[in-house]
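In the design runs reported in the main text, the only information available to the sequence generator was the tokenized backbone. The following block is the verbatim input for one such run; it is reproduced so that readers can re-run the procedure and compare outputs position by position.
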């Protein structure tokens, strides 16, 4: 059963990434949220959801999802880097530099 759930989550994430590339952000967001209903602590889905909100320029939500992914997997450099980008965009340069260094470390 666990293996079936993992395959479904992976399928939903892959589908969401394809939809995002096509510019279908709402559908991609929907699939990532479905994946998170199955596996709430999937740091990859959380990071990708953060990316979608970042593209939609909803930086508060993006930051929330990147932070949540990092809380689950502290060495997840993709989410750390994405959070650094958000901090740089919002003018928090000191925190951004710290996060970039942390992302490089991993």
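Verbatim output:
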């Amino acid at each position: 059963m666990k293996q079936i759930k993992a395959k479904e989550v992976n399928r939903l994430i892959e589908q969401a990434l394809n939809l995002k590339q096509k510019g279908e952000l709402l559908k991609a967001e929907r699939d990532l949220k479905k994946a998170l209903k199955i596996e709430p602590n999937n740091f990859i889905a959380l990071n990708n959801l953060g990316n979608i909100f970042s593209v939609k320029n909803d930086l508060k939500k993006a930051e929330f999802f990147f932070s949540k992914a990092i809380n689950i997997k502290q060495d997840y450099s993709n989410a750390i880097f994405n959070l650094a980008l958000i901090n740089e965009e919002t003018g928090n340069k000191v925190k951004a530099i710290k996060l970039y260094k942390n992302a490089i470390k991993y």
